Amino acid sequence: MSEQHHSLQSKSSFEPNFAAYIGIDWSDRKHDICLYDVHTQSRTFLKLEHRAEVIHEWVASLQQQYEGRPIAIGLEQKRGPLIYALSQYDFLVLYPINPRTAAKYRQAFVPSRAKDDPTDAELLLELLCKHRDKLSPWEPDSNTLRQLRQLVESRRTLVGEKVRLTNRMTAALKNYYPQVLNWFKDKDTHVFCEFVAQYPTLKVAQAASEHELRAFFKSHHVVRESAIQRRLNQIQTDVPLTEDASIIEPLQLLVQAWMQQLKVVLRNLQTFDHRIEDLFEQHPDAALFKALPGAGPQLAPRILVAFGDDRDRYQSAQDILRYAGIAPVKEKSGKKEWIHWRWSCPKFLRQTFVEWATSRGSIPFGRRRFMSNNDGLGKPIPWRFAP
Question: What is the DSSP letter of 374?
């Protein structure tokens, strides 16, 4: 114990401006805390409930105890309720620590992998004191950009929900009403949802008059006569896959339930699009990112969020490629060499660049081009290199 105290003391001497160092092992219900006081060279362990009033009361006691002097806090969280609560206080300097870094550090000295929350808090404190030169303090972007980040990530979640519902509906319709899938190229649209809701089976669609069907398409902004006529011809000539009510009726109810959910998601996506557009236009660099080839109204705000407000953070293009997990990782030992996909990285950031690459077809990186596909859910498929 005395050796550990000595190491903390020697490290703290490099940073006399910090009155204390704190490691926090957070969870949904409580937070385990290990505090090292620079003046007394002692450690204190405590546990806090995850309640706003408890957290703010604890921070107020720290501010009073250390008279507002800076305090360094290490925690395994870059975003989330705890860091949102602590970021309100200027005297707290937050150091997000990658959970993998903490786990590997612990396993290096505890091969048995034994762990508990107070020990993890002490481990984070040790990482903060001994290796703070390798950690970066948390510096939030502007309010506009932080709000934009939340919006674009939430919107991408809704897009994933849209894909999930569309795939489920498509799979169900193939069992009793596959014809409607040929009539509409895009299944994630309001016109498709409204058509299936109004004409839930082929029999119902064929019973409708040509005038009624034309009026439906026109009311849903389908203006091309060739598209309308093609659908009318298919509706009249198609043959039902099955007329078994035991198959049709249950699946029809299921499709209608998913259809209602999809319509809600589509409406909310429009709301997100409008809000994202408004915030994006307020940013002084909006024109720069809109001009990027293949960016478009959805990807341009996401690329802006990827770079953030602090442009000095990345000194070269290679820096952001490595951080985003796009640049290949090389492992070499003896005569063996293995180049692979980076497993640990900001997934949404990498997803942004992968989808941008997909929209353009390829992006040149030096002598090679990064080729990427997308599985429809925003998950990147491992790359291939083209000469």
Answer: B
